[in-house]
Amino acid sequence: MESNTQSKLHSLNIGSLSEVFTFTPLKTSLKLRLVCRKFNQAVCYGWRLRIYEIGICVEHCETQLSDGFDEKTVEEYKLMSEHQDCIIHDLKGLFTRAFKLNSPTRYYPNLGWLQKPDRLIVLPLLMACVILKKKNGEELMVDYKKEGINKTFWYKLKLNFRGRTRPTKLINDFEISKVTPKQLQNCRMILRQNADLSPAKISPVSSCASDLYEWTKLALKYFDIKHEILSLGIKQVEEKIESYKTTSQKMLKVFEKILANQQFWIPPEQTLTDPN
Amino acid sequence: MSTMVKLISQEGEIIEVDQETVMLSVLIKSMIDDSGTEEDIPLPNVSKSILEKVLEFCKHIKEHPLQEIEKPLKSANLRDIIPEWYDDFVDVEQETLFEVILAANYLDIKPLLELACAKVATMVKGKSVLDVRKTFNIENDLTPEEEAQILEENKWAEEAIQ
């Protein structure tokens, strides 16, 4: 709501005005320092206020962690987290084995020879690609849903795994935390529609595809565990603490730098609620 | 029956309200703790109309608690974050909103101060510096040197918070 009359915003004391800047993202606050001298001071003071508040929130979360969960839940959480770590390690191992990335002198799967697409090879590669490459995976899924497996599709898909450099880059760039629900949904859909797929069936045709099939199943297992972990509630509190600490550190870093400038220095003896 | 307390507004008018409602104000609570409910409570910094608005908030929050508003705001539309009543409550003229902020700060009513400040934050979110100055009719009192210094600090700060 805009007004033509003289605004009273400027007449707010710094304590009240600074509260506004605890609600704005850091970048917005930085920009708003340029509005006027009072805004500049209020932004800095708001940060100080927010850092203080974050400290209280972290303490609250830490109390929640230490008192809010029984021993059995904590133990369960620990085991599941360890299992997830193992999966991450195994995922790299399986992928490396699939493309023989560890043995430079040995043959590695050159998928170029296969002109006619075999679904037992195509589907594991497609599922792995959907999880490994968000954008390409989505494009491939559109083609797969529209036209199914044909030569054009196979050509597009195998390009992602061609040679040694591409698979190496794929696995090195892969961050499991960035996999989206949509990617998982697509992958699960392929598995549902192709329930006959199994390592026993795939491995005589291609060991690479068989490893990638297992790779996909293992990646999905990781997310099943993640779902179970979330149901315990501990992870959320830990993530909250992490996020609070990251924000606070960023703010402190900037705040200290700005505070070094005497002009915007706020005496520490002033109270947090009413510096005026 | 609940105990009633008498609040005296800036204009000298008396507003009677039940004690439980006003205990949300840390200032009034401490005054009652010190002097009891018999004595009138003078609030020279709050006008009658704003005091009535503040009391409306205090009454409502008693029945319908307001969850803490997440910082920074996830949306520029408060309605996405808080119940409709609270959004309507702060959907007022700028002047009234700022007076509510001043009153909430003076009376020390944290949820009201946060709600009103969150509303102002939605009003500045996504706006350029010039737009903010225009919207709130603020004169730029920074010297060119100060502006240059802030710009320089911001450049560094933006890299630091990446």
TrEMBL record, chain A:
Protein name: F-box domain-containing protein
Naturally occurring in which organism (per UniProt): Euplotes crassus
F-box domain mapped to chain residues: 12-44
Pfam families per the UniProt record, alphabetical: F-box (PF00646)
Gene3D superfamilies given in the database record: 1.20.920.20
From TrEMBL, chain B:
Alphabetized UniProt keyword annotations: Ubl conjugation pathway
SMART domains per UniProt: Skp1
SUPFAM superfamilies listed in its UniProt record: POZ domain, Skp1 dimerisation domain-like
InterPro entries (UniProt xref): SKP1 (IPR016897), SKP1-like (IPR001232), SKP1-like_dim_sf (IPR036296), SKP1/BTB/POZ_sf (IPR011333), Skp1_comp_dimer (IPR016072), Skp1_comp_POZ (IPR016073)
Domain of life: Eukaryota
Signal sequence bounds: none
Pathway: Protein modification; protein ubiquitination
Domain SKP1 component POZ: 4-61
Domain annotation SKP1 component dimerisation: ranges: 110-157
CDD domains per record: BTB_POZ_SKP1
Gene Ontology biological-process annotations: ubiquitin-dependent protein catabolic process
Pfam family, one: Skp1
Family recorded in the similarity comment: Belongs to the SKP1 family.
Protein name as it appears in the record: Suppressor of kinetochore protein 1
